[in-house]
Write a structure and sequence with these properties.
two-stranded antiparallel ribbon; 2 strands; globular; mainly alpha; Arc Repressor Mutant, subunit A
């Protein structure tokens, strides 16, 4: 079941986004699914930011409740996570956040060439990342 703005404190679009992603971990999980091809609980735990197991479990449940991700695999066995179409709709937002960071954070670890490629051909960058999400490994995405 996907949460809607009916469950939020107000119907403000910014509030809806904050209630969905308003912590330091949720967008990092989306990043890992979208750009780093991580799909398992263990994979998320290996991310550089060092999320704790209890926070990861809660954020995965939240993302699933919001319809951003879905789980695959039998209960009690290794679960594989994937972005839903609603989660994939975040790609332009995630790319804009990455580009903004590349412009304003001298220490960012955005891959070399990402910003220039994105500014010259944003649709091409989006297409390459969507191809990766669909299983075609060609094309770099922002890390």
């Amino acid at each position: 079941m996907s949460r809607t703005s009916d469950a939020c404190r107000s119907h403000c679009p910014i509030n809806f986004v904050l209630e969905t992603f308003g912590d330091r971990w949720t967008l990092l999980i989306v990043r890992d699914l979208m750009f780093k091809q991580k799909q398992t609980y263990g994979g998320f735990l290996e991310s550089d930011e060092g999320i704790s197991t209890n926070i990861l479990a809660e954020r995965l449940k939240r993302l699933e409740a919001h319809g951003i991700i879905e789980r695959h695999g039998p209960k009690g066995q290794r679960q594989v996570y994937a972005l839903t179409s609603k989660g994939r709709d975040l790609l332009p937002v995630m790319l804009e956040i990455t580009a903004w960071s590349a412009r304003h954070d001298a220490a960012t670890n955005t891959p070399p060439g990402f910003l220039q490629a994105y500014e010259v051909n944003p649709d091409g960058v989006k297409a390459a990342i969507l191809a990766q999400l669909d299983g075609d490994e060609s094309g770099p995405g922002p890390d």
